[in-house]
Write a structure and sequence with these properties.
Length: 465
Amino acid sequence: MADPISKRRFHAALLAAACLALAGPNNAIAADASQLGGKLTPLGGDAAASKDGRIPAWTNEAQASEGWAYGKLRKDFWKYKADKPLHSITAANAAEHAEQLSPGQLALLKQNPGFQMDVYPTRRSCGAPDFVAENTRKNVSAAKMGEDGWSLKSAAVPGIPFPLPSTGAQAMMNFKMRYHGVGTDFPNGFTFVSPRRGSEDWIQAGFEQTMFYPWGKKGSAKLSDVGNIEYFTYFSYKSPAALAGQALAANVLLDNPSGETFYYFPGQRRVRRLPAYAYDAPQIGFENQYLLDETIMFTGTLDRFDWKLVGKKELLVPYNALGVYDFKAKVSDLVQKNALAASARRYELHRVWVVEASVKKGARHVSPKRTYYLDEDSWNAVLAEDYDMQGALWKVREGYLIPVYETGSCDVAAFSQYNLPEGRYIFDFSTVGAGVDVRWLTEPSGERMKAPFYTSDNLRAISDR
């Protein structure tokens, strides 16, 4: 593992460079809604190509070839499926590419000599439906943060609240409110946790899960009319035996950290409310490798941290990683001992917003400092880094962004998290080996697209073990 002092120095250099980038001409555009869809993409990214041309100009082009339908492999129908790697990065040549790598990526490459990043041509595949673009334009004047500085008070939805952010909290709210339809459904998914050192025993938990975003309906609505909720979720474990039958129903609010989480324990045959099952509470069943708010890069309210918008940076990030969502692949081919197979991961050079989180005075968190890297074209978190109480780099997360053919936008569902001191990693929201794809829903239909499904009474009624 890299020396913590040198890593902190590099981190400081990264932030300084990002601050310079923030002051540059591409980011000096006035907060004017008319720039959206012109100098800026509809969601607020810089539409222009980078100076060296490695990042092309953004164009609103269809990314799927004709003929895709749910149940077919997404990667087989992507417009650029024939792309070949430009080069590969390993521990041996990481220093040559340090300017385009985050501190976490450099540490991961140094610690894991077999880790390889295949770099492909940059494809700016993230667009937005017209109604999302129009709501985003409205939000330049309509969206407001709460007086507390971290909650969302008002916005036109579905749309990006702050396409021209001035604070880190606004940028993170864009991440939380990115468009991914009204729901995502995993009929069959997996969470993998690699073995402890000296062991060969993996944790492989099978589950079904649905996430419902009531503000994601097509058209335009006021957040105040829809309800200030980020999402409802339900999951139930199918395996292993120690977890099978456990189930959860929860909601995450945009203006209140309390929310409600209900958990069904089959051994007790009862549903319990878990008010403390949030923030840095370890998730049940994963040997303290996985905190609640690490889910899909970050989940939960923003209230425990101060969020600093550092600036923009050109980084090599996971992008168009459709191979990670191959539900027909063999687990052993893709989920390998120290990382996902390099053939499944894909890295491209993109501009990302750098947001630094520091735990508030009087608050607590096992990771008091975090850094998030948000894709400028979609507001997805594509990288994240957590630091421990001593200020040393602890965890590195990669979000595997893909164009979602159902929604016309991009999303991150599957992600990996590397625990550097312990040499273990997590791969969650995986459909590898599942035999069935994750589905993005654009129209509300069925009981799971209604709020009453996510109550304690309903959880008790549908839990039968």
